[in-house]
Amino acid sequence: MKLTIHDDVKKIPYYPKAMMYGFDEGWVRLSSNENPFPPSPKVFSRILDALFYTNRYPGGEAELKAAIAKKFGTAPEQVLIGNGSNELIEMALKAMKHEKRNRIIISDPSFAFYAIAAQIYGYEVRKVPLVDMRVDLGLISRQIDEATRVVFLNNPLNPTGTIFVQEDFENFLKAVPPEVLIVVDEAYAEFVESAQFPHTVKGIAERPLLVLRTFSKAYGLAGLRVGYGIGEESLVAFLERTKQPFSVNMMALIAAQAALSDSAHLKKVLRNNRNGMLFFSKALKELPVEFIPSEANFLLVKLGKEAEGITKRLFDEKVIVRWMGAYGLPDFIRVSVGRMNENKRFVEALRRIV
Ligand SMILES: Cc1ncc(COP(=O)(O)O)c(C=O)c1O
After folding, report:
1. Total domains in the fold of the chain
2. Which of 106, 164, 276, 286 is the most exposed place for a label (fewest CB within 10 A)?
3. In the 8-state DSSP scheme, what is residue 336?
4. CB 227 less than 6 A from any atom of ligand 1
5. What pLDDT sits at residue 48?
6. Which residue numbers in the chain have pLDDT < 70?
7. Which pLDDT score, from 0 to 100, does residue 307 have?
């Protein structure tokens, strides 16, 4: 009999312990844009091998850098590994600290951690509103002045799932002075289908630019914490000075390498995402409920004044989604694409409630 990915995991003797942390079958967790599948089976076998070496400090960062460099056609020296891309966001802020230039620019809304980390490191945060739920790079570049040190762009944007395109990005690169570091966080890039999605890595030689990616989303390693950045060699060396030795653990390094090598598994994940998106769009249109078309693995859904209450009622039905009040979008929820049975649970529960 052919096992599904999920059944494979159940065969591992330690799986039931996961129940203690709420990964119970009855719950549908669509609130954190996680991958609904366990990682590639290759990850499991490599991690089990690695367990025998946990008396040693982590090795494997050089190998992971080499594998990433090969994938992107860069040199390994242009790759930075972090404890999740969150660590790389912090490293950028630590390294770029400057007496006179002390402001970061982000879109509003955007991924919450940029502002949180900026406040920890004593930066002022300037927020630039979206236009039609999209990042407007022209508007952002006009906000840059002599106090600006770092601009964080997120493409596709969490929480809207919208993207900015190649042409706008090229113009943006020309408009921003070299004293400003541009960070493009592409945590959801693997899910993008649009041909207009920018080739950001090509721009790293031109100016200070750091492209962030993560193994937490499409590769399903959120619990292990590993992300990477790509930038010009001297920028990478400069940022790396702020990194704690061994900040990425051995399991994460080994798992990331194994995950990267399994393109067939990645394809399955992306196919599930595409089917889930098609299912959501059809079902929400039928309800009818408004949503923002998304290039990522989540969807921003407009529910109006009842959005918070509906989130609570979905929770009562064991379906967890994210109310967007904290992002300044109180009329919206964000729902991640799950497995098809989970997507159906969400839509059925929503249908009963609205
Ligand atoms: C835009 C964005 N960047 C970064 C992250 C964090 O990624 P990591 O798990 O690699 O720290 C997330 C997580 O939700 C995200 O949405």
Report:
1. 2
2. 286
3. E
4. yes
5. 87
6. 1-25
7. 97
Q: What would the pLDDT profile of 131-141 be if each residue is shown by its tens digit? A: 999 999 999 99
Per-residue confidence (pLDDT) for residue 24, from 0 to 100: 57
> Are residues 277 and 241 located together in one domain of the fold?
no
Task: Output the pTM of the full model.
Answer: 0.93
Q: Is 4 left (phi over 0), alpha (psi -120 to 50) or beta?
A: beta
Does residue 185 sit in the same domain as residue 112?
A: yes
Do residues 50 and 34 both lie within one domain?
no
- Tens digit of pLDDT for each residue in 29-68? 999 999 999 999 999 889 888 888 899 999 889 999 999 9
Buried b / exposed e across 126-143, counting CB within 10 Å, b at 16+?
Answer: bebebeebbbbbeebbee
Same domain, 220 and 276: no
Domain that holds residue 225: 46-261
Torsion of CA 116, 334, 225, 65, to 10 degrees: -100
Q: What pLDDT shows up at residue 137?
A: 98
1 Cα: distance to centroid of ligand 1 (angstroms):
37
Q: How far is CA 321 from CA 73, 204, 273, 325, in A?
A: 38, 36, 17, 12
Q: What's CA 165's distance to the chain center, in Å? A: 18
Q: How far apart are CA 181 and CA 239, in angstroms?
A: 11
Cα–Cα distance, 315 to 321 (Å, whole number): 8
Q: Is the CB of 336 under 6 A from ligand 1?
A: no
DSSP 135-159: --HHHHHHT--TTEEEEEEESS-TT
Cα(286) to centroid(ligand 1), Å:
32
pLDDT at 62: 96
Q: Whose CA is nearest to atom 12 of ligand 1?
A: 187
CA distance 326 to 306: 15
Beta-carbon contacts of residue 279 (< 8 Å; ≥ 6 apart): 340, 343, 344, 347
Q: Is 216 in the pocket of ligand 1 (CB under 6 A)?
A: yes
> Which DSSP helix (H) or strand (E) runs through 113?
helix 113-120
Is the Cβ atom of 187 under 6 angstroms away from ligand 1?
yes
Domain end, chosen from 199, 233, 261, is at: 261
